[in-house]
Amino acid sequence: MTILTFLFFTALVGVITYFLTRKDDHGTSTGYFLAGRTLTGGFIAGSLLLTNLSTEQLVGLNGAAFTDGVAVMAWEVIAGASLVLMALYFLPKYLRSGIATIPEFLEKRFNSTTRTITSFIFIIAYAGILLPIVLYTGATGLMGILDLPKITGIENETTLLWITVWFIGIVGSVYAIFGGLRTVAVSDTINGFGLLVGGFLITIFALNAVSDEGIFKSLSILKEEHPEKFNSIGGKDSSVPFSTLFTGVLLLNLFYWTTNQQIIQRTFGASTLAEGQKGVLIAGLFKVLAPIILVLPGIIAFHLYASREGFRPDHAYGTLVNDVLPPGLAGFFAAAMVGAILSSFNSGLNATATLFSLGVYKSLFMHGDVDEKKVINNGKLAGLVIALLAMSTAPLLAGQDSIFGYLQKMNGLYFIPIFSVVLAGLLFKRVSGKTANIALAGGCIILILGYFVPPFTSIAQKVHDFHFLGIVFATLMIFQIVMSKVAPRSEPWVHEDSGVVDLTPWKWAKPMGTGIVVVVLIIYISLADFSVLKDDGAEASEEPVVEAVEPTEASTPE
Fold first, then answer.
1. Which residues are bridge partners to 502 per DSSP?
2. Count of other CB atoms within 10 angstroms of residue 444
3. Per-residue model confidence as pLDDT tens digits over 529-546
4. Stronger pLDDT, 352 or 24, i.e. the higher one
5. Does 29 have pLDDT greater than 60?
6. Residue 111 confidence (pLDDT)
7. CA torsion sign, 437 to 34 to 126 to 179?
């Protein structure tokens, strides 16, 4: 029953997507990479949510909640506030420029070298960090939900992992390489609905597994037996200590939702600014509610499985789903989960193809008249190469203590330099292209040295990884501000209107944005217990020598 419902719903999404997109324009760059600028608010919101809501969230974040409790909701709740900033500040500026990629915006703001550097950074990061993690977490989650070892008879976990990774990768490549952005957005929206419904059902079934007296009684039991798991304020041993909410966690969130090509590309395909803002803010509202399906199940899994010897946090969600869902619903949710995996994977591939075609191939290898067909075909070829590379490296991630913590740490390598340049370019009109290029290259080098090269790693480890990201970001911003005075561009930058998109804002954008920020504050305050910070301070004062000489494992996110 599980396998039949899985195959049925997976095929159903494919058929519906085909009929809705079969007449789309796939022969031009705008049609293939930007859905012909026809996306409305519903498709933008659905695609934003599902591109983000994949197994690195479902498996990884619930695994982090298994260890740290609701403090890890920072990644979701703060995302709501970040999306408000995207809708009200960044999106109007992007659509005003009429761009298809972030590197294209940086070329308009700085120069072609900036675009090329940023394109290569994105492509390398997606190929080496994002896509392998999406495939690995997707395969791990699917193996648990469908109990693939039992169904397939393949007992060797490594062999099954390789097979599952390649299955997901091949199907995702078909969507991304042959379908274009609108195919991705439509399939995302359909799968997104299924995943949200399935996610809420899992939480309800899981709560019923805690107690048969109702979900409120179950919540009461969880709070009574594990009060430390329901504190929104992370202590020093948490993967997200409270102080990091104002440094690395905030910066990673802001980049992800305002500058990350893989995520925001669908907003560039908005039919109008109003539709774009509507989609972004609807997504922001759902992100604020996301801990119900991305954090609470991890805490429930801790209650149910923490006593099992050798139980790994990143197996929490798959095990929980397999245990609490009836076979028919397990197949339905597995199909929706595969849709989420495919969404993140094919969105990353589509973004990579876009970046290569428009940011590298078109600007470096084509001169004079542009052959649209050749640009698209080279983008598809680049997507295929990246897909094969990701499928070949994903299984090698097995053994990481926390795949979600690893993802956030690696993301910082390119998030921070790119975000600092985009923000400085928007805020300071005199920053030059040369300054931006130095900041991009220098920021990446500093972060690589701090992460991987002794003795620089010992310097970086004196503070939390996320504080280190904040320090690097502040350094890059100060450098660009100083250089805008010392060696400014000859004329201040003028942000011209491309006239491609109607820039009339949505009338409810500001009220809805304000409401989302208020809800974020309420959630944090209602779950806050600041005594954990006092305890940390007391412990630090009692053992100053030990803390200085032997940093805890909290120096790296887990």
1. 272
2. 20
3. 888 877 555 444 444 433
4. 352
5. no
6. 92
7. negative
Q: What's the sign of the alpha-carbon dihedral 164, 170, 176, 179?
A: negative
Which ranges of 101-147 would DSSP assign to H, the alpha helix? 102-109, 112-125, 131-145
Q: Are 54 and 134 in contact (CB under 8 A)?
A: yes
Residues 514 and 519: their CA atoms lie apart, in Å, by 9
Residue 332 corresponds to which amino acid? F
Determine which of 162-176, 381-395, 416-430 has the lowest per-residue pLDDT on average.
162-176
- DSSP per position, 327-342: HHHHHHHHHHHHHHHH
Which residues make beta-bridge pairs with 270?
Answer: 39
Domain extent listing, the chain: 2-404
Task: Determine contact, residues 58/258, Cβ cutoff 8 Å.
Answer: no
Integer angstrom CA distances of residue 354 from 106, 177, 288, 378, 493: 15, 11, 30, 10, 26
294-315 b/e with 16+ CB inside 10 Å = b? bbbbbbbbbbbbeeeeeeebbb
2-404 has which fold?
A: Sodium/glucose cotransporter (1.20.1730)
What secondary structure, in 3-state letters, does 50-78 show?
HHHCCHHHHHHHHHHHHHHHHHHHHHHHH
How many Å apart are CA 139 and CA 168, to the nearest integer? 8
CA distance 121 to 79: 23
Residue linked to tokens 């009220």: 511
Which residue from 372, 510, 495 is spatially nearest to 425, judged by alpha carbons? 495
Whole-angstrom distance between the N-terminal and C-terminal Cα of the chain?
A: 36
- Number of separate helices (H) and strands (E) present in the chain: 28, 0
Regarding predicted confidence, which is higher, 288 or 371? 288
Question: Residues 6 or more apart from 231 whose CB is under 8 A from it?
Answer: 69, 70, 71, 527, 528, 529, 532
Q: Which of 206, 201, 252 is nearest to 405 (CA)?
A: 252
In terms of residues, how long is the chain? Answer: 558
Over the stretch 128-138, which tens digit does the pLDDT of each residue have?
Answer: 888 888 888 78
Comparison of pLDDT for 359 and 355, the residue scoring more: 355
Question: Is residue 1 classed as helix, strand or coil in its secondary structure?
Answer: coil
Q: How many CB atoms lie within 10 A of CB 33?
A: 26
Check pLDDT > 90 for residue 230: yes
Please give the radius of gyration of the chain, using alpha carbons only, rounded to the nearest integer: 23
CA-wise closest residue to 165 among 335, 48, 314, 338: 338
| DSSP-H helix ranges across 355-371 | 362-365
